[in-house]
Amino acid sequence: MADAPRYKRILLKVSGEALMGGGEFGLDDATVSRIAEEVKAVRAMGVEVCLVIGGGNIYRGLAGASHGMDRTAADYMGMLATVINCLALQNALERLGVHTRVQSAITMVRVCEPYIRRRALRHLEKGRVVIFAAGTGNPFFTTDTAAALRASEMECDALMKGTKVDGVYDADPMKVPGARRFERLSYRDVLTRDLGVMDQAAISLAKDNHIPILVFSIVEPGALAAAVRGDGKFTVVDDGN
């Protein structure tokens, strides 16, 4: 069947910056709604979906630390920024009729559930979308690492990373005409070369758990569904098997 999904369960990693649309800060409602439509389309294919969202559109811990703030405090502020983004996407999904739960690694029971692995798995089995907030709940770890960790815990078949371009290039294609896009890379390739896929902790987690990473354009409508089917433009990072 041509439209059959290649994966049964995926984790989608979206940066906070992807939620800004054409703005320089905060949330763009139209962009958040469009990403929610993308997720809904994949759910309609029968794919179980969970997400990790960054917080860089609101606050970035490393930026705060670079200006003299205590790194731990700055990272916790960044984690709280991700919660805002997760609640915004939950609202957009539920407006579309997609049942969604937000689980936070930092307990805040008035606004979302605490992260409990078995409960998250049950939500996925019931067809709900689960959004994981507050990163790993620990400072000094990125939301990329949180995405690889949750993908491993949720036993996902793939980790989908939405970016502004349709894969991994040997240079920034927005700045370098003729930059070469890779169709496939090994975990070793991205661990030993500065290709900007994810941080090394995230790549190592994916490698250890044999979870392929698909890098695609979150900006292009329909690109997520195409990547899940395996017929779009994207780069696969895997162990080559």
TrEMBL record:
It catalyses: UMP + ATP = UDP + ADP. One of its GO terms (cellular component) is cytoplasm. UMP binds at residues 55, 75, 136-143. Its main location: cytoplasm. The keyword Transmembrane does not apply. GO terms for molecular function: ATP binding; UMP kinase activity. Residues 8-217 form the Aspartate/glutamate/uridylate kinase domain. It comes from the Bacteria. Pathway: Pyrimidine metabolism; CTP biosynthesis via de novo pathway; UDP from UMP (UMPK route): step 1/1. Keywords: ATP-binding, Cytoplasm, Kinase, Nucleotide-binding, Pyrimidine biosynthesis, Transferase. The keyword Cytoplasm applies. Its EC number is 2.7.4.22. One of its GO terms (biological process) is UDP biosynthetic process. Transmembrane segments: none annotated. It is found in: Cytoplasm. ATP binds at residues 13-16, 56, 60, 163, 169, 172. Pfam families: AA_kinase (PF00696). Homohexamer. Catalyzes the reversible phosphorylation of UMP to UDP. Belongs to the UMP kinase family. This is Uridylate kinase. It comes from Tistlia consotensis USBA 355. The lineage of its organism: Bacteria, Pseudomonadati, Pseudomonadota, Alphaproteobacteria, Rhodospirillales.
